[in-house]
Amino acid sequence: MAEHESDQTLLERLRRGDESAFDNLFVRHYAVVYRVVYGLTGTREAAEDAAQETFLALYRRPPAPDQPLRPWLCRVALNTARNALRAERRDTLRVERAALDVVAAGEPSEAVERAEERDRVRAALATLPQRQARLLLLRHAGLSYAEVAAALDLAPGSVGTLLARAERAFAEAYARSTSTGAADQPVGKQVQS
User: Fold this and answer.
1) Which of 11, 127, 154, 157 is the most exposed place for a label (fewest CB within 10 A)?
2) For residue 191, what are the β-bridge partners?
């Protein structure tokens, strides 16, 4: 029955203390929230922590009835993950840990190449203004233009244009990072927009 209920119906039940409504919302939205924060944090552990904190915020204080849930969750998730990264300075530790994991595990070259590619993508994202990086992360996580607009407080009609600009900026930053070796620089130092 709950899989057919709207988010707003489940939120109303949650506000009345129905824990099964929370369970249903968690199952329904966890994957998207996880993908969003994983794109920002780059580690499974940090993404899981931020996703759990996001759902704890939902449980403790659900959004207002007029707020769409998925964009609200993504906004909370991005803020939670960004604050965790800033507070713990995970950038350097993550790079060091990844290097140690590669050496210790003796991964095949294909897995090493995938890890290096992910690092290059994160490094390129880190050079973009926050809004552009967030646009790309949310869209890549599967949010619609309307959901991206709601999550970032943008006019819905501007998302396509802003996303196209973000994609061009990312392509340029990625090309620069692969040609100059900038992928070795710490990730997470984003320019404020």
Assistant:
1) 157
2) 129
